[in-house]
Design goal:
The chain is globular, with a radius of gyration of 35 Å. The protein is mainly α and 409 residues long. The strands form four sheets. The protein has a three-stranded antiparallel sheet with strand order 1-2-3. It starts with a helix and ends in a 5-residue tail after the last helix. It has two domains: 142 residues, no CATH class; 152 residues, no CATH class. Helix content is 57%, strand content 9%. A hairpin with a 2-residue loop joins β7 and β8.
């Protein structure tokens, strides 16, 4: 089917809907939807790649179609067109995949499985296609960098600069304190003008005469006694004992702002969408353990996800989630004796491990190769049974615990 035929069929539907509307505003809305659809189809022919952000996409659309459509209205029309693309049957298969790719339209798991029969298809955390490689090589689509990754990098760089400024200010304050402590107290200078009229010159002389060599100077501070030093040392020792212990795992600065160093091992800092996606995966695994329910664990994970969604991209790292994950897995393993021997379906556990493997791959870092190998081993060790025994569940949980524990980061 040619592009003209595809455009004609879609335009006819939208234009007929516009003509049938007696309301002028509704008519214009449908015409704007048709223009957006045409705009996306043309992008698949000239620049077939996912858009970076709505602002640039909206600006490009208004310039090309000489439209005065505001950003919010454009976003609403765009969402409608994405649904139309997903449900439209007049497209050729290749055209539909390109439109889904360009518009960042999310696809269902069922449709994803259907596409996997013909190609290697990868989705992001919004279920949008970011990579499509046909097995016969007829169509290859791959996004350079997702919007989430760019946004995360900008956030990480900004936060790295803030940390660098704070560290430099703290260092300057410490240096000032050290210099102040090392300097002797300033001497008070008192002088009086010589009022002798015979000399005619105002010469400064001390108010107090200098003491004789054999006479002690009462103005001088007494020499420190030997008993004062042990007292000072005891005070310092008491202060050290009262000071809180240093954290076991402490991130330090790295030369690369896109990385953090944890226990002398570098790893990327995942973005907020990636972190929330991981929490959803982990919550799904915990929820699969039936009839034993970890209500406190599930509530804890939900609270963490709500907090991250509320505060946005600032000061977020997967490292912040590690304590909650460690505690949750430890609680599950500690109560493993009370869990029935067979309670999780094989396919559910296998799907979770595959999704966890995909999540580690999205971090795009060689430091996670060892973690990926562990997940691969667990996938290969799973036996094709209707239900999985508790030892396999415990082993999988331990694998996840190893891959998210602080030493791995």
């Amino acid at each position: 089917m040619s592009t003209e035929e595809e455009n004609k069929g879609l335009y006819e539907k939208l234009i007929e809907k516009a003509i049938s509307c007696k309301n002028t505003a509704m008519r214009n809305t449908n015409l704007e939807k048709a223009d957006i659809l045409k705009f996306l189809i043309e992008k698949t022919e000239t620049d077939c790649r996912p858009f970076d952000d709505f602002d640039s996409l909206h600006r490009e659309f208004t310039q090309k179609f000489n439209s005065n459509l505001d950003l919010d209205s454009f976003r609403t029309r765009f969402q409608y067109v994405k649904k139309l693309i997903l449900l439209e049957s007049d497209f050729s298969f290749e055209r539909k995949i390109k439109l889904l790719f360009v518009s960042r339209c999310g696809i269902s798991s069922e449709y994803h499985k259907e596409l996997l029969e013909k190609a290697d298809v990868q989705r992001d955390d919004k279920n949008a296609i970011v990579r499509y490689v046909a097995k016969d090589g007829s169509l290859i689509l791959e996004a350079e960098k997702s919007k989430q990754k760019k946004k995360a990098k900008r956030s990480i760089k900004t936060e790295a600069k803030k940390r660098q400024i704070r560290d430099s200010e703290d260092g300057n304050d410490e240096n000032d304190l050290d210099e102040t402590a090392s300097k002797p107290p300033p001497k008070k200078r008192c002088s009086a003008l010589n009022q002798s009229s015979s000399s005619g010159a105002g010469r400064s002389q001390p108010l107090t005469p200098a003491p004789a060599q054999n006479e002690p100077d009462s103005t001088r501070s007494p020499a420190p006694t030997t008993s004062a030093q042990p007292v000072q040392n005891s005070v310092i020792a008491d202060a050290r004992e009262q000071a809180p212990p240093a954290p076991r795992f402490r991130p330090v600065k790295s030369e690369d702002p896109d990385e953090i160093v944890f226990n002398n091992r570098r790893a990327p800092q995942p973005s907020v969408p990636q972190t929330i996606f991981f929490l959803k995966l982990f919550r799904g695994l915990v929820d699969m353990i039936e009839p034993y329910k970890q209500d406190d664990v599930l509530n804890n994970i939900d609270d963490v996800m709500r907090t991250y969604e509320r505060i946005g991209d600032s000061d977020i790292s997967l490292l912040d989630v590690v304590p909650s994950i460690n505690l949750s897995i430890s609680n599950i393993l500690r109560h493993s004796t009370s869990i029935p021997q067979k309670n999780v379906r094989y396919q559910s556990l296998l799907d979770f491990l595959k999704n966890w493997k995909m999540f580690l791959k999205t971090l795009h870092n060689d430091h996670f190769n060892e973690a990926l190998e562990k997940v691969e081993v667990e996938i290969n060790n799973l036996h094709v049974e209707k239900f999985c025994p508790i030892d396999q569940i415990s082993r999988c949980l331990q694998t996840i615990l190893d891959t998210v524990s602080p030493p791995a980061f």
